[in-house]
Design goal:
By secondary structure, the chain is an alpha/beta fold. The protein has helices at 13-17, 30-43, 54-58, 62-67, 101-113, 129-133, 136-139, 155-160, 183-190, 205-225; strands at 23-24, 47-50, 68-71, 76-79, 91-95, 118-121, 144-149, 166-171, 198-199. The longest helix is centred in the last third of the chain and has 21 residues, at 205-225. It starts with 12 loop residues before the first helix and ends with a helix.
């Protein structure tokens, strides 16, 4: 049902697929974002907003800003409490370089919103392969690995050749010349020689996190059936 702002929010999505609907703030007006947040707050609902730029956050009314936990790196905002367990992470976020941090942060915040902690292994691109090799023992313990890389995006293939967990490649729009915009990274990930690498769209940290959540939810469902 449409609300007075013309929003048809999918409040039952988590019951169907185990994932809540997030608000993609890009292209929305500041007024529309504020109305969505106010509606959720009035109903006592939690909310995850993605691609909320610092400028759009600054344009929010003071009372709306006060409601939100905002992270400028990931450009995400969270309405409601965050609660992460003390258990060891089952998901690792692996970045080729510090330039991939924004996309990885979007994934980390999406996972945190769902109550899932993640280990972060940063700046282990293949140009300095020794950095990755030092982390392999820990990475092999992870159920799911989100691997963020721009330029030639070789890192997801290398990681997938070293670990047994599910590998989700996240091409980023980092690089010079033909690599700029992320298409070279996307093509490299799609043509990976490592078997079973899953690929999401360029800079799609949110989508990668959702894919990881689906995998974990499926694993938990199988355990409950046994």
């Amino acid at each position: 049902m449409l609300d007075e702002q013309g929003v048809r929010f999918d409040k039952a999505r988590i019951g169907r697929i185990g994932l809540e609907e997030a608000v993609f703030a890009q292209s929305k007006t500041a007024e529309r974002v504020a109305a969505i947040v106010e509606d959720a707050a009035a109903e006592g609902r939690r909310l995850l907003l993605t691609r909320l730029t610092p400028q759009m956050m600054a344009e929010q009314p003071e009372h709306v800003r006060a409601l939100l936990d905002y992270d400028p790196l990931s450009q995400t905002a969270i309405l409601g409490e965050l609660s992460l367990p003390d258990s060891p992470p089952e998901i690792a976020l692996v970045t080729a370089g510090t330039s991939d941090a924004r996309v990885a942060a979007e994934a980390r915040r999406t996972l945190a919103y769902s109550g899932i902690p993640a280990a972060v292994v940063a700046d282990v691109g293949v140009a300095g392969l020794w950095r990755l090799l030092e982390e392999v023992e820990g990475l092999r313990k992870m159920s799911v690995l989100l691997v963020f890389a721009g330029m030639d995006a070789a890192l997801p293939s290398v990681v997938a050749g070293l670990v047994p967990g599910s590998v989700i490649a996240v091409p980023t729009s980092v690089g010079y010349g033909v690599a700029e915009g992320g298409r070279a990274a996307l093509d490299a990930a799609l043509s990976s020689c490592a078997p079973g690498v899953v690929v999401v769209n360029i800079d799609n940290g949110y989508g990668a996190a959702c894919a990881a959540l689906r995998i974990l939810n499926s694993q938990k469902a199988l355990l409950l059936q046994r």
